């Protein structure tokens, strides 16, 4: 049986795993397994999402740690179907057991116990609904089989002592996950604008890159990767690039992390329009200055890259027909009317008729104006028809 007196080493190990899980350094299964061992439990579950009451197909989600639940292993991520349980609507962040809610005969006759708990050798339950901002509550359950001892008041007190750590760690995890999602959305939006991004350190070594940057660097037409570093093809451009990177980091330090973008044009051996790049140093906390790895983001724009605008969104924005939208997108990608007609396999007269209709609907009079309003619209921020959201 678990003892209320945890030694300091075991306590530190559990707390470390809880907060490592919050930062996604380890799986949540690891701290849950520690809880299982600490309380001599057969299962520990963390119910992350509760099922919708009015939608039978909208299942919840839980992490379950224990002895071969449903014969499928010790750690599982399972759908959670039970909205109506005897443990619903309890005080948040307050540990309770079955004894706090009903007597033993009521529990034995409970439909929930008979249909779910009994099938999984669950009888003694210690639980807490952990309140989480903007989420509601996350249900935390520790269970034992019927032939084990019930949870003692000391064990309830120990669990209650650990709840604040779980609550903080889950809040951190949710906030980091939300920040990551927002960052991912911005990153994808930049990508859909055909802007390549490369993250580098002070030496120019590449740390990360998006898919557009990878394509540009693999082409080695102006910029490339040499010995893991961002390098310009021509020596003169490369010297300027190195100075630009060095100067950007130096000025960021001198100006207390003030973001001072640095820019240059890079010549392309193919003869295409030069690549434009902008470098911004990622600000670091004052207290962490000179203690970690300084980073910068290099934005690369290929002026001749094709627009990633979604034809469906463009059609809705400007009230165009599918044929008119297809022509507009070809023109936005730099083709002449004749080239666009050939690419779409339509007659020139048909293309001219579409263009007149487009002018009428958008209120522009020249092809250059049409290209400008398409490129400046929000259409490129949507997903392309061939690249659905991930």
Automatic annotation (TrEMBL):
Transmembrane segments: none annotated. SUPFAM superfamilies: C-terminal effector domain of the bipartite response regulators. Residues 317-374 form the HTH luxR-type domain. It holds the Pfam family GerE. This is Helix-turn-helix transcriptional regulator.
